[in-house]
Amino acid sequence: MGMRDTELYHHLLGLAAPWAVSDVELAVSDGRVDVWVVHPARTRFVCPECERELAVYDHSEERAWRHLDSCAFLTYLHARPPRVECPEHGVLQVRLPWAEPHARFTVLFERLAIDVLSECDVQGAARLLRLSWDEAWHLMDRAVARGLAAKPLSAPAHVGVDEKSAGRGQDYITVVSDLDRGTVEHIADERRQASLDSYFTRFTVEQLAGIEAVAMDMWDPYINSVRAYLADPDKKIVFDRYHIMKYLTGAVDTVRKQENRTLAATGDKRLAGSKYLWLYSEENLPERHHDRFALLRGADLKTGRAWAIKESLRHFWTYRRRGWAAKHWKRWYFWATHSRLTAVIAAARTLKRHEAGLLSYFAHRITNAGAEGLNSRIQAIRVAARGYRNREHFKTAIYFHCGGLQLYPQTHGLPG
Ligand SMILES: [Zn+2]
């Protein structure tokens, strides 16, 4: 004869004294197993607050926890949690070895769910784990809350600040990252000064002194926040290469639109449908566009000049020495402001106003593009997030996948 089913489940669940399986019910047609767990009479438990050993005061109502499946059978653990009456802390439910307080799942199930959620989108994970969509989100929320609570508070040396569109239109979130670790450290609503302030306010003055540099867009609310919280802000703000190039690319596009309109009025359609050609950097232009692009560039168009000015700025970040880069910047600025291209002149003047934060790159050599892995991961989450329905879910998913957090629940006496 084999093991009795109660004994089998005792082993499968890895239960330790005083807990033991009292009953197992298999409902084949429902595809589920229900397992009841009890403790012997007169067992003493400790107060969850002070660990004082006490007699059982009473039991709460029976509860059920979803556990790892038994051979594709949904498996539920049932028990009546004991309560103790602590002279100091009053009547409290004791800690159960298989689940965290208020959890609807056992610790082992939560660990599996976290593994599956890390590999899938929420819908896929919910399907694999046979959870509802809300239950899957609930697990993810709990994991993130757990991870954030356990995370030690420390300010990274190199901080990245970026805005991300969180939905349609003007719905933004501010994402603060640790550029060295490549992790998301903080997420705040909108992209106002208060958004970034909410990150800095968490630290003491001593901790803030550990921040050596902040990479960001030329965005006044963020600049003001750094000025309000960090000493020597102008030495620490680094305007991000990625954002600056995007800004210049926007100027090229403005020139192209205007020129296209002028040319089209005379029946010249050379620039029509060329928008994306001018967005590439020279080395990234796909092979199939080479001929057309060479023709356009040789055609003495304003757009071609604007593009060449944009591409020349790219070299700024390749200099080994700040002095050479500063010379390049000066020459570039002269060229750009004498280009007679209004959009390019305006862009160059904006850069000039932010010159210190441009040149400070050579003291720190940081860029949000260095966290490009992070950017593309957040972008992937955003794409998968079309079904998230709200911004809070988007934030949870970013923390879950990019926060570098300790997401697993602690085990108390269960293997795993
Ligand atoms: Zn107590």
Order of helices and strands: HEEEEEEEEHHHEEEHHEHHEHHHHHHHHH
Work out the strand percent.
Answer: 15-25%
Low-pLDDT ranges: none
Distance between the termini: 29 Å
Strand order of the largest sheet: 11-10-9-12-13
Can you count the helices?
A: 17
Helix vs. strand class: alpha+beta
Overall radius of gyration: 30 Å
Count of individual beta strands: 13
| Average pLDDT metric | 91
Main pleated-sheet profile: 5 strands, mixed
| Mass-distribution shape | elongated
- The helicity comes to 40-55%
Q: Any ligands, ions or cofactors bound here, and which?
A: zinc ion
Task: Summarize the structure in words.
This protein is α+β, with helices and mostly antiparallel strands. Strand 3 (44-46) and strand 4 (53-59) form a beta hairpin. It has a five-stranded mixed beta sheet with strand order 11-10-9-12-13, with helices on both faces. Strands 1-2-6-5 form a four-stranded mixed beta sheet. Strands 3-4-7-8 form a four-stranded antiparallel beta sheet, with no helix packed on it. The model has no long low-confidence stretch (mean pLDDT 91). The chain contains 17 helices and 13 strands. The chain is 44% helix and 19% strand. It is elongated, with a radius of gyration of 30 Å. Zinc ion is lined by residues 47, 49-50, 52, 86, 88-89.
Relevant terms:
single chain, 416 residues, alpha+beta, five-stranded mixed β-sheet, four-stranded mixed β-sheet, 19% strand, elongated, binds zinc ion
